[in-house]
Amino acid sequence: MWMLLHGFTGSPQSWDPVITRATLEQDPQRPALLGHRSDWRKFEVGSFTEEVERLCALASSRRRPRLLAGYSLGARVAAGMLATAPELFDGAVLIGVHPGLSDEATRHERREADAANAQALRTEGLSAFISRWEKQPLFATQAALPAEITAQQREIRLKHDPEGLARSLEILGLGAMPCYSSALRATPVPATLMAGGKDTKFRTLATDLAARGAHLDAIIVDGAGHNLLMEAREAVAEALRRAERRAVGGASV
To answer: Which of 11, 87, 193, 206 has its Cα between 20 and 30 A from that of 73?
Structure first.
């Protein structure tokens, strides 16, 4: 049973095009991350580790093999789950993952940036924030995508509660995230780290981590940028199928 975690401003539906292509053995579990559903206030989550623990508890109730995948924010949360409870999982695919910041000065700078974005959500409103968010260089490669795909993503983004996204930045932002680099390198869980070939920063993170972890491998998708759920759906679907085959002891990979 897969658990699929979406990115910041995304939703469980962000995985729909990949699921359609992957033909998985079972319907995946797709929880919304903190701040990304209308009733987000009911979750008593006050830290990154508490969100990790909440999702680990959800995963533990499903039958094996248990497989985990996440994109961007979802990949960072998934990294925390692998670090916290590796015994729960039989395989993982992490897309555009950052393992966390180890330097406290850099963490402080990132917390300030996340706080500024949270404040912008509260003062500018959702539409203005999303328009600015989409113009980041990280997402520049999406300009080449069909308008239908980018319109679908924007529709998902504009359905969110701005206060929920603000809380997500404050609680799940990179500055609030523990550093899981060592735990990821030592994980006994077979995990594939994916990144787009044009996504220089995350390509380097993926290849460096994979080179230092016995159970890690990297897949770099040529011509793609950061959001492989939009830009390389078939490649992600194949990575999920590959992880599933490996977990159930099927065809060699």
So the answer is: 87
**Could you tell me the fold of the domain covering 2-248?**
Rossmann fold (3.40.50)
pLDDT over 50 (residue 252) = no
Where do the structural domains in the chain lie, given as residue ranges?
Answer: 2-248
Question: 48-60 vs 162-172: helix axis angle to the nearest 10?
Answer: 100
Q: 182 is written with which tokens? A: 């060592």
Angle subtended at Cα 227 by Cα 152 and Cα 105, rounded to the nearest 5 degrees: 125
List the beta strands (DSSP E) in the chain.
2-5, 67-71, 91-95, 191-196, 216-221
Per-residue CA distances from 3 to 13, 91, 170 (Å): 13, 11, 24
- DSSP of 26-85, one letter per residue? SPPB-PPPTTSSTTGGGS---SHHHHHHHHHHHHHTSPSSPEEEEETHHHHHHHHHHHH-
User: 23, 47, 59: which is closest to 245 by C-alpha?
Assistant: 23
What's the rounded Cα separation, in Å, for the pair 158 and 137?
20
How does pLDDT run across 47-104, given as a tens digit for each residue? 999 999 999 999 999 888 999 999 999 999 999 999 999 999 999 999 999 999 999 9
Residue range 13-30, pLDDT digits in tens: 999 999 999 988 778 999
Integer Rg of the chain from CA = 17
